[in-house]
């Protein structure tokens, strides 16, 4: 490994959580490595390696009449057509990790980012903006197949302007524990307490994008099934959540489903219970959530005043297979006055078998 490349490797021992080295890009390239805003040297941005047309963008900088949004601090990076940026990380082989980062569109409506830690790779759609700030935070998860991996973020777009592309900032990593069920809940991570890293000042939450069913979810073992839309992972410091410190906001209507598969016994009865509420974020209106399990479903209506609150829902069903899919879908859409999508929060989800157990005989 060259001396240049060795500085790109950061070792994380055991459980880790927090910003990647120069994850906010506040350590600037040398001025000799800049041609205007374009970064010329492959290793010019400390702790990162770049390829293609990459720009170093300062807060307040404009593109024509449009102000380019910098999510945090003074600087961010923009990836042009086919440009990429990567960082090498020394991790625990076999462990699961989530990456959180912020991104904003700057040109085309259908901008995308390809996030890769080999052999896993996914295209994250960023055309829908879910916050009024002009950017969103995204999460993505992977399993470390080696002790040293390369995190690569690539812009696969082909715009007329070669410099056009997403603006990215604030990269963080978090170790994801193995989800466990309990005697009181057959579902794993039913309270959503285990999930991607949320930046302390990120009042807009973190998006969990759609994924293939074989992918590892940042909300594992929950999956987000959709073509292009996401759900939002929210925290108690910035939102009202029904239980604990985390919850999921269904911001994309019927286009997105929150799903978990659970092992069941055909013919046995089960009860699914959950909370539906609002995040106290000004999302006002009629918000109903439809829950599905086996051949049954229930619709739980909730009238939101946008100030927080929740109600409990329940669904009794009989398992028809050795695996049952639990599904939550938001019925309809709601927008806040600033034009951003919002929706109900789902939290505190539990599943138990309700088969009557034989009473114990009392010995007299």
TrEMBL record:
Localisation per UniProt entry: Secreted, Cell wall
Origin superkingdom: Eukaryota
Keyword terms: Cell wall, Glycoprotein, Secreted, Signal
InterPro entries, per database record: DGR2-like_dom, Galactose-bd-like_sf, Pectin_Meth_Modulator
Family annotation (Gene3D superfamilies): Galactose-binding domain-like
Domain DUF642: 18-174, 186-351
Keyword Iron: no
Short name of any one Pfam family annotated for the protein: DUF642
Record-linked PANTHER family: DUF642 DOMAIN-CONTAINING PROTEIN, OS02G0527500 PROTEIN-RELATED
Protein name per UniProt: DUF642 domain-containing protein
Species in which this protein is naturally found: Miscanthus lutarioriparius
